[in-house]
């Protein structure tokens, strides 16, 4: 027996306990073993794009609740349960608002993914050209997100590298002008290094035109109209892109890659990817019978205002693409109040979270109207600026694009009238695409237009959203936007 | 032997068997006599049951029955040794007598019973640490489904809270308060030497919805003979990095030497919900709807026709039977001891279509192979089968639990449509599924199997030096199935949603200890040294599908769903290597010293900090052995104890020190591409939390030990807390796990055991009380920890805030100030947009604006003191026992009430809403009816959670052995018992003992539509053959 004990003791002394205690997670990827190969670099970029594709946080509903709902375009439907959403609509929101918080957190999470890719990819050994392209994709997404952030919140913490240490986390707000400088730098790098055309198998990635187009919008927001004009022109002249004949077809699932989409978030149902669309939020509630029994499980949470619905002029084909008031899902036709229709995929009517439809971020018509707006701001109305708007209008009314049409074309407007006309055109063109709040703030008309329409609670400082209170609590270097007392 | 046993079942054959055994004895030992007799106590002259009678120098023996009588076959020249707890042993030569009546003298040094400590046993009188013992008799006063429930109110400083009262439901236990914010704070359970951290979510697969089942319910509580709770650092340090939350040592039944004894225990009972909540009836609800909408939704004619409507609580609750059958065969001889038990436990839930069943078996065996070597095993296997009622709260939209649905559902609606189909959902604003349909049609089922056992060898190397090695395994396997059919709201739109999961965990343990025991002169020394290695691996597989053609296959054939979700597999493992040492030294039986140390290496921590050393030391002074105390006749025992030590807590998930990546997938080129993004910031310095504890204790026995007191005062400080510190989101992360901050607990505990009456009528009192004060001392760089949203409907944000200087579980919100009345100057108030009938809040900072800055601390979920007391009476064969437990001074966030008191008309409300504010009813408690459910969390939702509960009351009768002598039954007891017979409390919810967030440390004392408690009555019988 003594021998056994000695044996045991010597065993204990020699067995490497270090190995026994080493963690080697079987089902968890860890940083140390990743970012080593070209495939890892590809996967890092996939994650960056994936950050954009989320039902509730960044695009889709995240931005809808901040940029569509608090405008004259939309209101809370009967399915809205969250008091914070009512607060956004009613301009009673404050720093403790879970929807503002959700967007803020998701944006920074995706910026962090982009930062890691930007930091790590250069040292992974593979072809420089592709490396630069991947870094440019990450920088494009980072710019896209910071552009939203700076417009929604003004000065924001500008983080450009992976955070690896807990010592330097309390980043203060960077002045908006500096944030814009970085956005421009990122987009210029992207413009240089992105592919001009996505090769087969790469559709959906950002391209040079996406970077130029976004730069045009950035410059328009900065009121640097000549640069906005030039960048927009660059895209307008790119033969890959143009207006579709039919407004309706821009948003059909079959037509997910069309020449009007300069950059869109990729989205495909029943693929196991966390899917962008939650159609239940905007479809009518339990009223549309399904062929196999039951009803479409809509929730009527996000609905347009009747005023927006009625604002469309007769003959404007965009109206019936933006909204619907009746539907037959195979179980008989029913009618209902106006609901959003644009991002509706009839093939997933029975499974509303699995829609297949790309979410447009930059459209050709946006470039036309950006171009027109820049030109008008520089020189006032001109044939060229009017033509850009009129192309959009002709398509909207189903007229030949290249042929002047007296019935729909704008003419003889003053600079101010054209400003108003472009803003109105943008409203009709981009309904449910979450441009309205940005457009109203950029044109400095948010307060006037909403007050005119009975939004009595809106205050001057509502042209920026408050930083989430949680961020101020954690990071003492942050200062709240003026007007918001937590 | 077999033949004899068989005949002993035959009542009339009893004497024959006796004769036969006499004959066997004659063959075996030569001449033999049958001795009968009565054992009485000297002081009280009362019969004493349970006295052990051993033939000296053998392991043959018997025990006295309930009437103090015994029968034993011995050789005429044998010497009988009579012994029992509380009495001095006495040796009596048989001298050929057939009747021997014995009077035993009470032992004033009562503390000589053995108690189990980690890796050994010790005389209670030699303890230097703080250990609470719970005997089998005490533990079994209340029939319980799982052993943790049996601890309730039994030991000072041990607070047991149900997290769900569903059958098989879990508890959360805190010993001397919460030591931690994030790290698991449940005690370590050591079952026959096998350490088990009871993490109910680790053993669950994740397919089912609702509160997790209790993994401890797979341990049959009927097998337990003693429970020891190690509370201070001296006692618990032997469990090192896992001891900081206290340790519960469970010992299961071992065989006793003697003839095979068969025990049969059975009970059958009925449970009913102990309380329902008063709600609006259909008529009252219809009026509320009209008021809230400000227009006529229901016409007066309609309202007149509604009457009471549907009482949804009555529809889902029922009288539910419960039953338990246990048979134990145990016995042994001088070299072999065995105990075999089988158990069947079946508890129906008080919610329709919910139940819990357990089948279990245990075999404990020990064989002395030769004079040096003993081999043995403790093996148990159990299978449980639970149909869980969906009792989670579902928030504002979507799937909601049966209870919350029953409270919220429109009482005007019926359970079924005229065509017999279910009414699918609530028709007023908020979609709520029909609770009856959910209860009856939803599958939410869990089947678990657990094998827990070890085999061991004990080898006596030298006199006093023993080596013990053991190998054990704890293997759990849980299969869960969930299916929401199209007939209920949860599955209607998706045409059926099914999920299935399997979680299998294996924990291997090898322990090796050397124990050296030596007494010389006035010195007594015990030295323990050991090594232990444990490894745990858990595999998880979950899959889900929806879109079924019909509801026939459901979760049993997920492949038949049209939409298949990606399957999830997950592997989790951890390992622990430990070196153990302990020295117990006693001088002159007066001065006692214990030094304990354990070095633990844990895989869970960062590369820079894998190992930790946890030392403790304690001293005790038996004052009663000193001459100046010995002269005081009233004092029998007096001992002072002092201990100090550091113990650890490692209960975090694995891999937390590493920079893990999270998966992503995105469509590029119309194909799914997989990606990875950072999931957390790495922390190579991550290590265990350390709790340093000082304990000062006093044990006092008075008046021939009729009154025993145990008093302890302690101070605990936990440092290097493992905190998920909120970091700014600009980092891309929400939190980072760091060793930061400290927390303290200090408190006092008093246990009193009194034998008030000891003659024919006996009256014993067991009383305990404990007060613990908890305070967060430091959170490092953060000024506060926010806790997120708790109520999906009302969006109550950060109702609990953790700040230094305050205890954990402090509620944070507005202070309500009644209701705005007509004519009040609202414009001058801080709520300028309010209208009469709105709730008014105090503008605490006086800035004229009501905003988040006006929130303050409005109560704490931790009690000021808590405990329990038991009164046991016995007279002749009757015994009566009443066990109470109580909690005082805690607050509950009644989230259920917050919902129910809000008069929106979108769902049903409490009966209190009848008194809502209207221009003609200037209520100051319930605001006006409005569809708006904007809500501020305030003290109006905080309630006092104090209570006193009669946990169990039982009356039993022990049949006298004279009646039984012809039946083959040696002991028979019949009893009736009632559980939760009454509760005194101001709490308005179902039950103040509630903890919806399970084992969570932060969100405690929150009642959100939890499974209600029941009241039960049962009748039982215990038979021994």
Query: What is the name of the CATH class of the domain at 37-194 and 465-474 in chain A?
Result: Mainly Alpha
Q: Main beta sheet of chain A: strand number and arrangement?
A: 2 strands, antiparallel
β-strand number of chain B: 52
Mean pLDDT of chain B equals 86
Sequence stretches where pLDDT stays below 50 over 5 or more residues of chain B? 1-30
Radius of gyration of chain B from CA coordinates: 31 Å
What amount of the residues of chain A lies in strands? 5-15%
Estimate the global geometry of chain B from the Cα principal axes.
globular
Largest interface: A-B, 101 and 92 residues
Into which percent range does the helicity of residues of chain B fall? under 10%
Q: Would you list the SSEs of chain A in sequence order as H and E?
A: HHHHEHHHEEHHHEEEEHHEEEHHHHHH
Distance between the termini of chain A: 73 Å
So how many helices of chain B?
Answer: 13
CATH topology-level fold name of the domain at 37-194 and 465-474 in chain A: Serine Threonine Protein Phosphatase 5, Tetratricopeptide repeat
Radius of gyration of chain A: 25 Å
Described by the principal axes of the CA atoms, the overall outline of chain A is: globular
Low-pLDDT stretches of chain A: none
The strand count of chain A comes to 10
Q: Biggest sheet of chain A: strands side by side, in what order?
A: 1-7
Report what the structure shows:
The complex is a heterodimer of chains A (486) and B (1025). Chain A contains 18 helices and 10 strands. In chain A, helix 3 (38-50) packs parallel to helix 7, helix 8 (176-193) packs antiparallel against helix 9 and helix 9 (208-221) runs antiparallel to helix 10 (225-236). The termini of chain A are far apart. In chain A, the strands form 5 sheets. A two-stranded antiparallel ribbon of chain A has the order 1-7. A two-stranded antiparallel ribbon of chain A has the order 2-3. A two-stranded antiparallel sheet of chain A has the order 4-10. The model of chain A has no long low-confidence stretch (mean pLDDT 91). The relative contact order of chain A is 0.12. Chain A has 486 residues and is mainly alpha-helical. The longest helix of chain A has 26 residues, at 128-153. Among the domains of chain A are: 37-194 and 465-474, Alpha Horseshoe (Serine Threonine Protein Phosphatase 5, Tetratricopeptide repeat), CATH 1.25.40; 279-357, no CATH class. Chain B has a domain at 31-107: Sandwich (Immunoglobulin-like), CATH 2.60.40.1120. In chain B, strand 31 (661-668) and strand 32 form a beta hairpin. With 1025 residues, chain B is mostly beta strands. Chain B contains 13 helices and 52 strands. The model of chain B is unreliable at 1-30 (pLDDT under 50). Chain B has a 22-stranded antiparallel beta barrel. Chain B has a 5-stranded mixed β-sheet with strand order 10-15-16-13-14. In chain B, strands 3-2-5-6 form a 4-stranded antiparallel β-sheet, with no helix packed on it. The relative contact order of chain B is 0.13. In chain B, helix 1 (2-9) packs antiparallel against helix 2 (14-29) and helix 5 runs antiparallel to helix 6 (300-306). Helices cover 9% and strands 47% of the residues of chain B. At the A-B interface, helix 1, helix 2, helix 3, helix 5 and helix 6 of A face strand 25, strand 27, strand 31 and strand 32 of B. Chain B: This is TonB-dependent receptor. Chain B: InterPro entries: Beta-barrel_TonB, Beta-barrel_TonB_sf, CarboxyPept-like_regulatory, Plug_dom, Plug_dom_sf, TonB-dep_OMP_SusC/RagA, TonB-dep_OMP_SusC/RagA_CS, TonB-dep_rcpt-like.
């Amino acid at each position: 027996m003594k021998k056994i004990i000695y044996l045991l003791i010597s065993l204990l002394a020699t067995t490497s306990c270090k190995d026994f205690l080493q963690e080697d997670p079987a089902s968890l990827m860890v940083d140390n073993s990743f970012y080593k190969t070209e495939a890892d670099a590809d996967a890092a970029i996939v994650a960056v794009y994936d950050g954009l594709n989320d039902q509730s946080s960044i695009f889709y509903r995240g931005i809808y609740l901040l940029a569509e709902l608090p405008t004259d375009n939309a209101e809370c439907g009967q399915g809205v349960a969250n008091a914070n959403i009512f607060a956004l609509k009613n301009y009673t929101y404050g720093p403790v608002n879970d929807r503002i918080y959700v967007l803020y957190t998701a944006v920074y999470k995706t910026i962090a993914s982009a930062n890691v890719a930007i930091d790590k990819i250069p040292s992974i050994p593979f072809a420089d050209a592709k490396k630069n392209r991947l870094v440019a994709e990450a920088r494009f997404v980072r710019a896209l997100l910071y552009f939203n952030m700076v417009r929604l919140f003004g000065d924001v913490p500008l983080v450009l590298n992976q955070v690896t240490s807990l010592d330097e986390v309390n980043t203060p707000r960077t002045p908006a002008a500096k944030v814009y400088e970085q956005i421009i730098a990122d987009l210029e790098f992207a413009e240089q290094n992105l592919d001009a055309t996505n090769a087969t198998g790469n559709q959906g990635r950002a391209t040079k035109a996406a970077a130029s187009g976004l730069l045009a919008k950035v410059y328009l927001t900065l009121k640097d109209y000549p640069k906005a004009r030039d960048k927009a022109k660059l895209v307008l002249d790119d033969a890959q892109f143009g207006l579709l004949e039919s407004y309706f077809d821009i948003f059909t699932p079959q037509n997910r890659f069309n020449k009007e989409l300069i950059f869109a978030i990729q989205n495909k149902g029943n693929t196991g990817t966390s899917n962008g669309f939650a159609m239940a939020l905007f479809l009518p509630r339990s009223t549309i019978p399904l062929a196999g029994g039951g009803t479409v499980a809509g929730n009527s949470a996000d609905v347009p205002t009747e005023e927006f619905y009625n604002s469309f002029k007769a003959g404007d084909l965009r109206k019936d693409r933006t909204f619907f008031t009746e539907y037959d899902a195979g179980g008989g036709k029913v009618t209902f109040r106006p609901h959003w229709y644009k991002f509706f995929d009839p093939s997933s009517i029975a499974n509303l979270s699995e829609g297949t439809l790309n979410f447009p971020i930059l459209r050709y018509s946006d470039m036309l109207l950006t171009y027109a707006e820049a030109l008008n701001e520089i020189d006032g109305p001109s044939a060229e600026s009017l033509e850009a708007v009129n192309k959009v209008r002709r398509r909207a009314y189903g007229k030949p694009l290249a042929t002047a049409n007296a019935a729909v074309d704008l003419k003889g407007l003053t600079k101010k009238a054209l400003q108003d006309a472009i803003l109105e055109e943008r409203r009709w063109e981009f309904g449910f695409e979450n441009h309205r709040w940005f457009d109203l703030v950029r044109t400095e008309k948010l307060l006037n237009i909403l007050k005119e329409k009975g939004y009595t609670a809106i205050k001057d400082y509502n042209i920026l959203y408050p930083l989430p209170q949680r961020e101020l609590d954690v990071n003492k270097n942050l200062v709240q936007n003026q007007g918001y007392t937590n | 032997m077999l033949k004899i046993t068989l005949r002993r079942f035959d009542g009339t054959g009893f004497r024959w068997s006796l004769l036969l055994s006499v004959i066997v004895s004659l063959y075996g030992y030569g001449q033999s006599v049958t001795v009968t007799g009565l054992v009485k106590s000297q002081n009280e002259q009362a019969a004493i049951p349970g006295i052990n009678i051993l033939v000296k120098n053998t392991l043959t023996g018997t025990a006295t029955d309930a009437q103090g009588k015994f029968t034993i076959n011995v050789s005429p020249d044998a010497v009988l040794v009579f012994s029992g707890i509380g009495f001095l042993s006495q040796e009596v030569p048989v001298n050929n007598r057939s009747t021997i009546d014995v009077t035993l003298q009470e032992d004033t040094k009562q503390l000589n019973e053995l108690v189990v400590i980690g890796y050994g046993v010790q005389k209670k009188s030699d303890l230097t640490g703080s250990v609470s013992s719970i005997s089998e008799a005490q533990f079994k006063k209340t029939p319980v489904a799982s052993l943790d429930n049996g601890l309730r109110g039994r030991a000072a400083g041990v607070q047991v809270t149900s997290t769900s009262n569903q059958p098989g439901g879990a508890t959360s236990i805190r010993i001397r308060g919460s030591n931690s914010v994030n790290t698991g704070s449940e005690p370590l359970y050591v079952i026959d030497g096998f350490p088990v951290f009871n993490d109910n979510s680790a053993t669950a697969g994740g397919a089912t919805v609702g509160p997790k089942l209790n993994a401890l319910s797979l341990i049959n509580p009927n097998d337990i003979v003693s429970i020891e709770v190690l509370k201070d650092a001296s006692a618990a340090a032997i469990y090192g990095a896992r001891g900081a939350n206290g340790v519960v040592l469970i010992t299961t039944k071992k065989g006793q030497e003697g003839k095979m004894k068969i025990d049969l225990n059975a009970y059958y009972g009925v449970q009913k919900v102990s309380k329902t909540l008063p709600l609006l009836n259909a008529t009252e609800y219809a009026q509320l709807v009209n008021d809230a909408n400000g227009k006529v939704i229901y016409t007066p004619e309609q309202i007149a026709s509604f009457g009471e409507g549907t009482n949804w609580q009555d529809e889902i609750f029922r009288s539910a039977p419960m039953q338990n059958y246990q048979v134990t065969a145990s016995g042994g001889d001088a070299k072999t001891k065995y105990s075999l038990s089988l158990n069947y436990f079946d508890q129906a839930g008080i919610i329709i279509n919910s139940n819990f069943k357990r089948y279990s078996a245990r075999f404990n065996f020990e064989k002395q192979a030769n004079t040096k070597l003993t081999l043995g095993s403790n093996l148990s296997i159990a299978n449980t089968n639970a149909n869980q009622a969906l009792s989670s709260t579902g928030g504002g939209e979507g799937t909601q639990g049966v209870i919350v649905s029953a409270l919220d559902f429109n009482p005007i609606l019926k359970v079924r449509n005229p065509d017999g189909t279910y009414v699918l959902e609530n028709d007023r604003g908020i979609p709520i599924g029909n609770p009856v349909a959910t209860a009856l049609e939803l599958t939410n089922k869990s089947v678990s199997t657990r094998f827990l056992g070890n085999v061991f060898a004990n080898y006596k190397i030298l006199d006093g030096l023993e080596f013990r090695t053991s190998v054990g395994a704890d293997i759990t396997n849980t299969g869960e199935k969930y299916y929401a059919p199209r007939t209920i709201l949860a599955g209607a739109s998706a045409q059926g949603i099914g999920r299935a999961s399997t979680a299998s965990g294996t924990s291997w343990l090898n322990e090796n200890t050397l124990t050296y025991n030596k007494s010389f002169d006035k010195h007594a020394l015990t030295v323990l040294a050991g090594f232990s290695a444990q490894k745990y691996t858990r595999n998880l597989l979950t899959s889900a599908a929806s879109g079924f053609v019909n509801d026939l296959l459901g979760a049993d054939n997920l492949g038949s769903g049209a939409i298949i979700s990606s399957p999830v597999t997950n592997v989790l493992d951890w390992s622990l290597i430990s070196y153990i040492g302990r020295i117990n030294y006693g001088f002159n039986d007066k001065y006692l010293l214990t030094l304990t140390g354990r070095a633990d290496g844990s895989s869970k921590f960062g590369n820079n900090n894998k190992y930790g050393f946890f030392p403790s030391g304690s001293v005790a002074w038996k004052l009663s052995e000193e001459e100046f105390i010995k002269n005081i006749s009233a004092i029998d025992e007096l001992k002072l104890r002092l201990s100090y030590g550091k113990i650890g807590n490692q209960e975090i998930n694995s891999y937390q020190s590493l920079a893990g990546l999270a998966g992503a997938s995105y469509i590029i080129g119309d194909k799914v591409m997989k990606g990875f993004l950072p999931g957390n910031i790495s922390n190579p310095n991550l290590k265990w939390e350390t709790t340093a504890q000082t304990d000062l204790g006093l044990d006092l026995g008075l008046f021939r030990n009729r009154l025993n007191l145990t008093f302890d005062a302690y101070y605990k400080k936990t440092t290097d807390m493992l905190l998920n510190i909120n970091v700014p989101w600009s980092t891309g992360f929400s939190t980072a796990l760091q060793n930061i901050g400290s927390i303290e607990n200090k408190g006092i505990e008093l246990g009193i055991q009194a034998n008030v009456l000891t003659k024919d009528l006996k009256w014993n009192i067991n009383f305990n009380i404990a007060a613990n004060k908890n305070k967060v001392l430091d959170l490092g760089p953060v000024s506060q920890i926010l806790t997120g949203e708790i109520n999906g409907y009302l969006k109550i944000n950060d109702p609990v805030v953790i700040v230094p200087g305050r205890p954990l579980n402090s509620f944070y919100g507005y202070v309500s100030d009644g209701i705005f009345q007509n004519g009040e100057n609202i414009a001058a108030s801080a709520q300028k947009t309010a209208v009469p009938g709105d709730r008014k809040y105090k503008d605490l900072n006086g800035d004229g604006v009501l905003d988040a800055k006006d929130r303050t601390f409005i109560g704490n979920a931790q009690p000021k003191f808590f405990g329990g007391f038991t009164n046991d009476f016995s007279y002749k064969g009757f015994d009566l026992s009443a066990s109470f437990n109580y909690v005082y001074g805690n607050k509950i966030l009644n989230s259920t009430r917050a919902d129910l008191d809000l008069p929106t008309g979108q769902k049903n409300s409490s009966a209190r809403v009848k008194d809502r504010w209207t221009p003609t009813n200037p209520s100051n408690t319930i605001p006006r009816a409005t569809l708006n459910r904007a809500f501020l969390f305030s003290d109006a939702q905080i309630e006092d959670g104090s209570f006193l509960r009669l946990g169990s009351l039982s009356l039993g009768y022990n049949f006298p052995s004279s009646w039984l002598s012809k039946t083959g039954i040696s002991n028979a007891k019949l009893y009736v018992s009632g559980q939760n017979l009454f509760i005194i409390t101001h709490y308005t919810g179902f039950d103040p003992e509630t903890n919806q967030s399970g084992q969570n440390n932060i969100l405690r004392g929150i009642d959100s539509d939890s499974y209600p408690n029941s009241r039960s009555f049962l009748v039982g019988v215990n038979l021994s053959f």
